[in-house]
Amino acid sequence: MIRLLICDDHAIVRKGLRQLFSLVDDIEVVGEANNGGDVLEMLRKMSVDILLMDMTMPGICGEDLIARIRAHHPTQAILVLSMHDEAQVAQRALRAGAAGYLTKDSEPEVLLAAIRRVVQGGNFIDPGIAEQLVFQASGQQATPSHGALSGREYQVLCLLARGRSVNDIAEELSISNKTVSTHKARLMEKMGFASNAALIRYAVTHGLVE
């Protein structure tokens, strides 16, 4: 039996995943967490075969969370299930130590196959993202500018593009206003944005917001 821990800040996603895993005989959900801090605490108290986690959550998240888990639990199998379908986000997760990366629009059968492969010590990457990586490696596809952002900077970029204020973002991510402002300043400099309007245009053009 595969002991699985779910980490996602959306209750409806966690519930849907539980329902999916209840239909198979070899996966047992042994816990749920809605933020990175809870994951770290739960991993200190229990042993799980695989962590299924989102990339963007309040507090510590993304590659920062993956790296911290790796530092304390070097052999922990981690599979990312994210809304982000960009190769750069997947690359950051894999470099930090995740064994696999899937998008949330994947078919249930693909998710189950990924879990089983990762638990057995293998790797799994979303086919669409794998295709992007192949084209980038061959030089046929340019890497977008936001690929240079850190995970948290990318998260702040997407929230700013959705019209969230610095205060709103600080509350949502459970970090200080000053930290959000620092991330904003850094990403604006890296991306060469002179205004929020330029940021929003870029995000819409590159499909970072709906």
Q: What structural class do the secondary elements suggest?
A: alpha/beta
Count of DSSP H/I helices: 10
Order of helices and strands: EHEHEHEHEHEHHHHH
Radius of gyration: 17 Å
Considering DSSP H and I runs of 4 or more, what fraction of the residues is helical? 40-55%
**Largest sheet, if any?**
6 strands, parallel
- Poorly predicted tracts of residues: none
> What's the shape?
globular
Provide the spatial order of strands within the biggest beta sheet.
Answer: 2-1-3-4-5-6
Report, as a whole number of angstroms, the end-to-end distance: 39 Å
Overall pLDDT: 89
* DSSP summary, beta strand count: 6
Q: How large is the share of residues in beta strands?
A: 5-15%
Describe this entry's structure for a reader.
With 210 residues, the chain is α/β, with parallel strands linked by helices. Helix content is 52%, strand content 14%. It contains ten helices and six strands, in the order E-H-E-H-E-H-E-H-E-H-E-H-H-H-H-H. It has helices at residues 11-21, 36-45, 62-72, 87-96, 108-119, 127-137, 151-161, 166-173, 177-191, 196-205; strands spanning 2-7, 27-33, 50-53, 77-82, 100-103, 124-125. The chain has a six-stranded parallel sheet, sandwiched between helices. Strand 5, helix 5 (108-119) and strand 6 (124-125) form a beta-alpha-beta unit. Helix 3 packs parallel to helix 4 (87-96), helix 7 (151-161) crosses helix 9 and helix 7 (151-161) packs across helix 10. The chain is globular and about 55 Å long. The N and C termini lie far apart (39 Å). The model has no long low-confidence stretch (mean pLDDT 89).
